[in-house]
Amino acid sequence: MMQLEARSLGYRLLNEMIRETEEDVVVSSCYGERFIGCGASSKTIVVNGTPGNALGAYLDGATIIVNGNAQDAVGDTMNDGRIIIHGNAGDALGYAMRGGKIFVKGDAGYRTGIHMKEYKDKKPVIVVGGTVGSFLGEYMAGGLIVVLGLNSNKFPCGFYAGTVMHGGEIYVGSFEKPCNIPKEVNVEEVDREGLEGIMDVLREFSGHFSVELEKILNRPFYRMTPDRTNPLKQLYTAN
Question: What is the model's pTM?
Answer without folding.
Answer: 0.94
